[in-house]
Each structure stands twice: as structure tokens, then as C-alpha cells.
Design a protein that fits this description.
The structure is a homodimer of 588-residue chains.
Chain A lengths: L31 H8 L3 E5 L2 E4 L1 H20 L3 E2 L5 E3 H6 L2 H4 L5 E4 L5 E4 L4 H11 L8 E10 L14 E11 L2 H21 L4 E5 L9 E8 L5 E6 L5 E3 L19 E4 L6 H8 L7 E8 L9 H4 E7 L6 H4 L8 E3 L2 H8 L16 E5 H4 L4 E7 L2 E6 L10 E3 L17 E16 L1 H5 L4 E2 L5 E2 L2 E8 H11 L1 E2 L2 E2 L10 E5 L6 H16 L4 E4 L5 H11 L3 E5 L1 H6 L2 E5 L6 E3 L1 H8 L4
Parallel strand pairs in A: 3-7, 15-17, 17-20, 27-28, 27-29
Antiparallel strand pairs in A: 1-2, 4-6, 5-6, 7-8, 8-24, 9-10, 10-21, 11-12, 11-21, 13-19, 14-15, 14-16, 18-19, 21-24, 22-23, 25-26, 29-30, 30-31
Helix pairs in contact in A: 1-13, 2-6, 2-13
Chain lengths: 588, 588
Amino acid sequence: MAASLRPEVPPMRLSQFHLHTSKETPAEAEIVSHKLMLKAGMIRKLAAGLYTWSPLGLRVLRKVERAVREEMNAAGAIEVLMPSVQPKELWEETGRWEKFGGQLLKIQDRKEAWYCYGPTHEEVITDFARNELASYKQLPVNFYQIQTKFRDEIRPRFGVMRAREFLMKDSYSFHLTDEDLGLEYRNMYDTYGRIFTRLGLKFRAVAADSGAIGGAVSHEFHVLADSGEDAIAFSSGSDYAANIELAEAVSPGARPAAQEGMRKIDTPTQKTCEDVAALMGIALQRTVKSVALMGVDTEGGKTDEGSQFVLALVRGDHVVNEIKLSKLAGLGEYRLATEEEIDQHLGSEPGFLGPVAPKKAIRVVADRSVAAMADFVVGANEKGFHLAGVNWGRDLPEPHDVADIRNVVEGDASPDGHGTLGIARGIEVGHVFQLGRKYAEAMKLTVLDANGKAATPAMGCYGIGVSRIVAAAIEQNHDDNGIAWPEAMAPWNAVVCVINPKNDAAVAEAALALYAELNAAGVETALDDRGLRPGAMFADIELIGIPHRIVVSERGLAAGSFEYRHRLASEAENLDRAAVFARLAPKP
Amino acid sequence: MAASLRPEVPPMRLSQFHLHTSKETPAEAEIVSHKLMLKAGMIRKLAAGLYTWSPLGLRVLRKVERAVREEMNAAGAIEVLMPSVQPKELWEETGRWEKFGGQLLKIQDRKEAWYCYGPTHEEVITDFARNELASYKQLPVNFYQIQTKFRDEIRPRFGVMRAREFLMKDSYSFHLTDEDLGLEYRNMYDTYGRIFTRLGLKFRAVAADSGAIGGAVSHEFHVLADSGEDAIAFSSGSDYAANIELAEAVSPGARPAAQEGMRKIDTPTQKTCEDVAALMGIALQRTVKSVALMGVDTEGGKTDEGSQFVLALVRGDHVVNEIKLSKLAGLGEYRLATEEEIDQHLGSEPGFLGPVAPKKAIRVVADRSVAAMADFVVGANEKGFHLAGVNWGRDLPEPHDVADIRNVVEGDASPDGHGTLGIARGIEVGHVFQLGRKYAEAMKLTVLDANGKAATPAMGCYGIGVSRIVAAAIEQNHDDNGIAWPEAMAPWNAVVCVINPKNDAAVAEAALALYAELNAAGVETALDDRGLRPGAMFADIELIGIPHRIVVSERGLAAGSFEYRHRLASEAENLDRAAVFARLAPKP
């Protein structure tokens, strides 16, 4: 047993590296990245949402961190390091001490002063800026940090995908004019593209709703993966991409002329569009779904009952988009109507609702697709019946509102006029915002402009979930045998596997030499000299996802070749030394 | 105004770097490193003990971090990253949830579970180890991390020297045998020496009291600086060095024969040894100081009064060492005696105490030096009087205990027998401990040994205050004009200063070329193209401590020379291009 701890530098011999894989699939892990990170021994759980990064996991995390840092530096951003613990007073200046909600981990120190563990740093950077920035000559400037954050998730899960403590790159830019902010926003947008491209990830930048952080313009960056939480609409014919919550469903063509007369259909148990279409033997696209809503009067003003009740109509194959609905007048906040309210306004019960002949005058909001329909099918406001051959202007008045109130679907025309939309699933790993002057105004940050007058700078903020990228990359790059890292994120790019190192000195020596030469040639290479049986060794190497595997064996040496296999190749090849280097060594 | 943010990479043109110095000396800063870090704009205070590292400060911090990481890797330690937030349950396993005291920042999450912001990671790493380590074959192993810690200092001060949130390298090693622990302890001891040497710091490794963290053997690493909080004794003739609290005061020679008779001296107002010696016209070394103590009975057992009252004697020029005293039987805990207790046992009031003829039988503890004295002076236990010519065995009994109970002083013999001791002041920046099995036992960490039996590993732990090193280096390396960084810690090694860049294109161009060539030659060089007047520019450069300054001016260009000045040189020199490179470029 070797008692001394002075191996070569850096430690890339796996016999001296703490690699600790597991054959069992951990029961608590719901998603593949969480399972594989536990099986590969990249992380270990300390408590809910708190993970230790093992030596193997940290190697990957640092690759991501380094790529982010180098690209941020190249983009002209300047690195700082702010405290993780932040005083309550700053958060009160922006009103977020209360508003941020339960995710804010509040802390009381020994003097009973309140702090929080920073989930984000708008307040701290704005405080820093109001001390550091005095003149427009110091602008534009973009400060960034790579730092541990904490969000007290109510249900932490999915390993580091939704951990409570996580590593984040956050940056904040300051500008005299909106135009300058726009330029830097574009710079960061492009930089994020370079970061994810460099990391070897398939991703999309999508227009996003900016949510709670505020500001007018924002984009999310998503790593594409079937398991992604978010749906993204993207064009087949252009760069257009948007979160499905925001993607516009464009107006269809003109409404065709009515061909049928309105008639009552007997639908005793058919309460959904799908069931009615099946019964009638027609396409789902010819049916219309009616959703009964109550606008909530949040202003405290007086509104009559009729204007509160709204019947929203979307095509049978479409889904109502709540964010789009909430942008309509009177629907800033709304809820589903109760059965009693539905009966009161329509004289019907759920399952048979429709816009034709309601009990009271009601407001009808039709999706653009519905407004362009003729001869459609709706509920009859009578239990057990639907109406077919319905037409606007003849059987019921034109809708009060025609608006885009649905999610786009695969095959919709792209809103930019080029191509049609596809839908992909993505994992959000980055977000860029134009914050405008919200924080600067709240915290009274000003600089002197060229005329010596105090001016409030415009701000941008730009985040990347560094630890989350590791999990997202696995969701995108894995197979049944484990992880398949993109080159830029792999803990090592290559591994030299030694068969039987203890009993075969010649093999061990040849492997050691190849390992050293590959590293000298700039290929970050590990040496698997642990002495495992080949099957166990190869399973480990596939599980932890090393892109290139080279096996040194007695038989290979005799034939003057090494067995080479790419992580994603179906078979191994026998290559001589020169061919191995041609395959692996970076081009000069 | 340049609105775009895409300068060259990395940003080393000061016009594009956020440098923000200040002429004012901040009133709140008590020590020179804190003052200079604020003036240079390296840090900015967010709240008590919480500092943001500016771009300039962070460059220095990262230099330290990198040196530590590279040397730890070279020493065979393996990097991990543990959560900063730690669950209470782990700290209860070791009993430290209560014992650690007020420095432990306790946090309650939204589910009302208790956590702390980790001030150290013994519990977490031992928990990690009991999950990761199963066999002696995985040992020895040394895990380290470089991570943000929090200690809720009751009085945070001195900037990052005693901040609450700080950056630390902590590592923890695991071993089957004590012998292996000893080997790795030595490895870390040597590694720490390499780190501080590489950083260009004058330091000493000293034997230390291991305090609250526990374990038997420990050393502190101190950066030497006159302003240091800790006193270190070191030998002139060997490597011996120890915290003054621990350095042994060796036995003096044999006691000389008595020469004088005991006599009473009139000392009406002389209550200190200094005053008495001055009055008598004798050396302070001939007087003896009496300190009256009460041993505190912590066991709850019965102790008679006489054994509780202790009179401790040290030479008039010596200082009692509380740690040494507390190692004596019955003095594990003690306090100063009250005036009433003194009167009760000695029949005297403070200022005139002595061991001769006490009112009651008392225990007398004499320092080794005192036990070796003859014809000495002590208080007479009578107000206004001292006794001179006092001798052991004749005027009073031999002392009950003779022990080393004083601090060493300059000129004492070194306890290793080589040379004499000097005293230096230092700032503790590193600490290595042999923890033994304390944590492993408390947390039930075992591995299987070669015989398949469960064995409890021995542990070592090794800390470096990464952010503290930055402040300590300044305490050691500064002058009236500012910081004078050692090369390895400088934000840049050199700066090219441009005189009048806007009005003189040839000068600006020559400076840019020199700056680019120096960087290409491996000299990390900044370009001061801010367009400041020379006086203000040079003051900034001296304040922030860049080792090498090269000035490009119209006059210099005409003469084919650059003005070169080392940060610590008293004058500038004119050097041609080749001479500049010879001075600055690292030898190949």
C-alpha cells in the first residue's frame, strides 16, 4: 500500500484519483441526468437540494466555469466577487425583501440583524455601482461574477438541475443610454451563443417572458433535450425561436363562406371536442372548445356582471395560452368560472357549453383561428347536445374580441413569415434581460452625464446556470450505457485503459508512455491503471462518458496496434500509434 | 464615447478596466492593509465584515487561489466542492452545534429546518467519506476545496483580515494508520511552505496550540509583519519556531548561593516590580512578580481552600503565560483572586504581595527562572513594604511547584539547544492539524482493513486563509506610497504608462506595441492609457503596487529609450527595448 501522496501532476491516473461509480440506479432520482450523475459518482447528496461535487463532478463543473469565464472576458465583461450574504436593508430599497417570496433564504446574525443568502445580486451590484460609478466616462461597464447562490426551492429535486445551492454566472451592465444597453444586450446574446457552442451543446435562444425580474426585453437560452421542462417554438425557415408562452399564432386566411345549416346533434355522453369529433366522424379541427372564465376585479372599481364573465373559444385541437389571455382587457387576473356561474350565464352545465344563445349577454373572446372558421361544432348550452354547422354572423353575433389566445402548434406558420414552426423541449440554462432603470431608480444610482447633469443609468442583467449546464448536457448527451460528454465538457478527453497492469510490465509501460505522450500533445488524457477486469473498466469509462478510449493489451502490442473506440461508435478499431494521434491530437 | 464592449482579451488596458483609486485615507480602517485595499479600490464594504472584491482586488485573490490550487494538486490532494450550507444534524453528531459558539451562523429554511453557513467542513467531509470510503485500498486520500466560508465574528474588522465571509482552502485527509497521517501531515507542511515561498512571502511555520478544532499535533503558518497579532518565537540557530503561547522557556542554570540577608524595604507607593527596581536602583531581573489566582473546581469534587489559592511567581521582567499555567494540576481553569481572597490568604493588599510568611498555608508555583534566583525582591504582604535579599529554603520554603509558566523573551535559549530565541510578529494564514480519530469516531466512519475488519481512519485537516493572505501580504509589503506586491501576487507584473496618449499618436502606438510584445513574451502587462497626468498616473500605479513600470514618452522615444522603474527602486533608469526585456521577461 502506497502511503505517500505525491503522484504526478495533475492527478490523472485513476488509481490515484477518487473515482467512485455505482452499479445501482438510485431510487430517488427521477430524471436521467440525476441518475447518471449519482451512478458516475459526480455528486453526492448532503441534504435536500444540497450536493457535494466529487473530484469527477468538479472537473466537469470547472470546464463549464472556465468556458464561461473566458468568453465573458473576451466579451469585455470584468470579473468581480460579491458577498453571498446580503443585508436586508438593500432588499428593502427595491421592495424585494417581501416580494421575492419563500425562495429567499433569510438569515439572522448574532446581533439579530437580518440578511439573506443571495439568490441574485441586482441590489448588491447597484449598491456597488452607486459607490463606484460617478461619471458617464466610466460607462458602459459590465461586471460579472461566478458564484454560489441559494434559492430555497419549495421542492428541490432533479439533483443539481433544481438544487437549492448552485453555481451561477451573473453579470450586470450599466449604460448611459438605452441604445448602449441594446448594444451590450446584443453582445451578451452573442457571447452566450459562443459559450454554448463552445461547450458543444445544441441550444436555442428564445424570446421569453421576463417574469419577476422585470424589464422589457429578454431572451432565454435553452439546451435542447426531450426531457426539458419548457416548450420552445422555432421556425424551420429562420432564426425565430420563442418560448411557447410567447410565440405568436399568426392569423389564418379569410373565413370561408357558410355551407351548412345549423343543426342540433345528440351527444349524450360526449363532453370533450375529441369525443364529439369521434362520434360525428369529423376532424378535431372543425370543433371549437369553450372555456368559461371570470375576470377578477383587482382595481376595486365597479364592473357589471356581464363584463366579468368571458367565454374564450379555441379550436378543438388547440390549447388556451394563459399568458396571452391575461393580456386582454379585463382579464389581467382571472379564474375558471364555477358551475353555478356557468349555469347563471349560459343556462348549461360544463361539457356542453357554447357561444350560441346564452342565457345572458356575455363577452365572447375568439381565438384568431376560431374567428376564421365556418360550419363549426360547439356545445349547445343544453345537456346532451352540441350544435354543428354553426356560422358567425348568422347563428351568433361576431365575437367581441378576436385575439391570439392559444399556444402555437407544430406546423403553424412562423410569425416572422419564414417557414413553419416546430416544437422542441428545452432546459433553461441562461437568461439575458434588459432591466432598464428599475433598480437604478429604486436605489438612486446616478452618474454625471457629458453636461454635468445627474443621469440614471440603464441596466442589463445576464445569468447562466453553471451547475445546471452540467445536468442539462447529460440530458442531451447520454445513452443506455451512461453519459456521452461533448469534448469541451468531458472530465478527460481520452483515457488509456491498461489490461492487466500488475502482471504485464510491458503493457503497463506502453500504456504509461502513450498516456504521457497524449498529454504532452495537448490531449487531456487519463490512465486507467486501477487493474479492474476489462468489462468493469469499460463499463466505468462509458458511464462517466470519456469521448475517446484507447486500450493497451498484450495482443495489441504484439500486433503494433491499440484498440480505439469513440464513446458513440458502435465498434472498436485497431489503430497504430500514428493513427491514434491523428484521431485525437488537436490540429495545430 | 465607445459604446461597444469588445476590447482585446484579457482586458489589460486600464482605460477599459474598472480601476477606481481614492486619494482619501478611509477613517474606518485601523490597519495599513485595510487602508491600502480601500484606497487602491480592491475591496468595497457591503456590510459589517462583508466585502465585494473589485476587478483589481479579485485579480490578486485569484493569483493566490491559483498558487494554492496548483500546489495542492502537485501534492496529490484532490479537489472537491462541498455545499456552504450544512444541516444541523451533522453538527449534532460531533456536538459542535452547541460548542462552536456564536461564530456559527445558524439558518432556518422555509420548512423550519436548521442549517448553518459552514465556517469549516469537518462534519461534511466526514459524512462524504463515510459514504465514499469503504476500503483501506481507497486510502490515503486528501480532499480539498477552495470555498467561501462564514464566521459570525463578534467584532469584524481590519477589512478582509477578519471578515465574516471569506475565501478559504480547506482540506481533509484520511489514513488507515497514524504513521500514514504523519506522512501526509509532513507533505502538507512542506506544501504550505512551497505555497508561501511561491507567493513571495516571508513566513514561519510554528508549533501551535491546536485550540478548539482538536487533535494532538498542529502547526500554524504566519506571514511575518510588524503589525501581526501573534508573537512567534524563533531560533537564531535552527528551524525551531513556535507560537509564543507554546514556546518553552528552558531551565536556567543552577541557583547561586545566597549572598544577602533578608531585609524590609520602604516602598510607600511602589506597587510594581518596575517601580520597586527603579527605587532601589537594581535590575528588574532581580525582582519577582506575585500573581494571586483561584483554581476553579470544575469537577464538582471537594477541594480545600488552601489548594485552590495559588501564588504564581515569575521574574519581574517576565510575563505569565496563561496556557502554560492552565496545564498545571488544579489550574485547568482559574481566575485572578479577589482582593478579599488575597487578604484572607496573604493578609495583604494587591501591589505588596509575596510568598514570604503568608497568613495561611498557600500553594506557591514558581517559574523555573524564579526557582533559580537568589537574593531576590518580593512584596512583604504588608502595605508599603517589599522584602529584599530573599532566598529559597532560608526565608521561605522551597516552592510547591517549579514549572515553565512564562512567555519566552528575546535572547532566551532555544528549547532545541541551538542558538537563542528572537521574537517576531506574524499573521496566521495557514494551519495544519493532526485531528486523529475524533471526528471519525463521533460520526462512525470506518473502512475495512486488509483483514476485512472495520477500522476507524485517522484524519488530518489543513487550512489556508486565501483572502486573508492578500491582506497579510500588504502588511508585509508596503511603503508610504502604497502596496509593493511580490511578483506572484501582483495584479499585473508590469505596466506600460503612456504620456499624453490622445495628443501623441506615435507615443500611443509605441506604448501599445511594447505592451503587446511584453504580454507575448509572458510578462503580464497592463497598459495605462487612461490619459491621466503623469503625477496622478504614477501615484495610482505605486498605490496599486505594480512591480515594474515602463514609461513611454515623446522625449524617451526620441532618445530610443523607455523610463523603467521598479516599485521599490528609489530612482528611474532609461533603458532601451532590449534592456527592458532583459529586465522583465522570464528566463526560459
